[in-house]
Amino acid sequence: MTMQGNTWLRWVAAVCLTTHTSLAADTFVWDHGDGNWQQASNWDPSDGPPGAGDTAIVDIDARVNLDGAVFGVEQLQLDNGGEVIIQGFSNRLTVVNLAGTAETHVSGSGSQLIPRGGGTELSFATDHLYLENGGELDIEGARVDVRRTMFVDGDSIITGRGTLRFTDWYCESRNRLNLQGT
Known about the structure:
The protein is mainly β. Helix content is 9%, strand content 46%. It is built from 1 helix and 15 strands. The protein has a 15-stranded mixed β-sheet that branches. The protein starts with a helix and ends with a strand.
């Protein structure tokens, strides 16, 4: 096999490893006050932080700052006032997989997903985004990509300035926006 072929195979393997759910996927629950996503001791189990194929749950009133890149989280759940802030140009969080089934849930008053300051560069991407029961997406000068479905119920809001893009990374056209209420 040529060097170019080996490079291509390494790239395919890297994409599969970061976007496909593994059999050893874990669920990580935030068990700290305000803090940094990358700090393992902020998660239970403390061998975190969550990464490719894992589920991340922030279900307490806490602000979680993401300072880095996290790819291929299988599920993100923000409840009970939990916030995740993705800060700056080189930081991004993707909740996606090859099957297009990865989900982000932002539910409950005070729960927020806040991509901030990425400009036209991707800050956050997900297959499915659900804003429910007062959950909020606050885009602050960043770009958010939704690959499949976005659901916003009557109590939830989208605020800020930036780009909310319905995109199709894998050449299928199944994008949907479902708004409930006024």
